[in-house]
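Write out this protein's structure.
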Amino acid sequence: MENDLMAKSISLLKDKETIILNHPKSIKNRIFKKNRVVTVVISSYNAEPYINKCIDSVITQTLPFEKIELIVVDDHSSDNTPNILTEYAKMYSNITVVLLKNNTGTAATPRNIGIELSTTEKIMFLDSDDWLAENALSKLVSTMDETKDDFVVGKTVKVEDKGESILAEFVSYKERKNISPFDIPYLFYHMGPPAKLMKTSIIKYFQIRFPEMKFGEDKYFLFNFLSKCSSVTTITDPIYYVNRLSSNSFSLTRSTDVLKKREADLHILKEVLHMSLPLKHEQVLVKRLVEYDLIKTCDSYVFLRSQEKAKFIEIIREALNLLKSKPYDIVNMMDSPLYKVAAKLIELNRDQDFIELFKWYKLDKNKHIVIQNNMAYYKVIPFSNDDPFKFLPIDLYARAKDSYVENGEYVQTFEIYGERISKVEYALIRDRNQLDNEIKVPVHIKNNIGEFRVKYADLNRLDSSVFSIFIRYDGFRLINIKRTLENQVTYNDRDFVFYTTKAGNIGFTIKNKN
């Protein structure tokens, strides 16, 4: 497949109708080639509203722009994007612009053309509606030069109308160097282009290219690339800003049918099983695909509202059947107790119970929590009392106990239960909309009772905003401390609500729904 993809890219570059401005291998660019240390490849299509911000974020890097090779491949835009790109090419000889005569339908071919044209030792991919932090390339390049690792990934920031948040924090929450990609938990769960620098030599030597898929091309490419990497680095610096503003209404990923995404994941699973990977490496990729992609999709309102639930279930069943002959049990390797039970229900052909499980989990706002032997469980209401899946384990569960002010400190006590109590690190008070407006607070736990204290003087250093309070455990995981303020049940077309009053008392109301 890779040979065909390479041949297509080369053919398009040779096509007389393809316009190439500032070819990287022109005499002028070859003279200055030795000064360039990194290639940035942008695939564009009808990107007029945001292409300037994208390109300017590369031009204004703290790494001098003359050290950067910027390749922008336009997939036959029908708006003003080609004219904007042409103007940039006139201003900068190290901006290569490729204008394709016909639309290819995915970002794969434009990115593959960028790979063919690249001439530097390091490469990264940037979507045309996103942008880079101003020191992104300087940090990535210097880190790769220092560690000699094949791959460096930093922090990705999601930008929405309501504010900013960290995307896939499990990748960038701490610095790691000279480590196998398969030894970093959940690295393979962040498989889009953002914030990643790669050695070009690995891509070209192993002829790794993006497959032409409506969905999943990034995942396939990075699975393939990382499986060839000896060692990688993760850093905590903000590198890449993902545009999820409402004004950016078009995105191929958003507009792709969810069921087709899962069909693509099944296809990728089959490809992984044919890669002849070491068993440990195969397990990492398979677990990500089956648990995180296929089953997690059903933990959504999209699945619950779908008229094609049976098709989702059949895709999962086919995936599980593909793995029956394997010497590992992928279901028992799953992290989420919910998804593990869901997979077992499919194995037992309890398809309707599979649906009922997710319906209960998404819609029941007053889940019954049972504490037994210092462990917390959900009582799964749809299942009978003798069902082996009646009680669903909760990894870590915390609920508020008491709060008061003492010696200028806010004190919060809470009950905490679960297997991962020993993994608790600290309490995190984090701004819901603004990065870095947060503080970490020590937590003390004894006999399932936790406590944290935070000085009001420390809280006063935070910017005014709305905050969430989490317990951080196991490195990157977060849970809320539950405080039940309201329980509502609808019965005979009336709402019965028990709630906490402003005075801290228990109140009760009954309202007719009509």
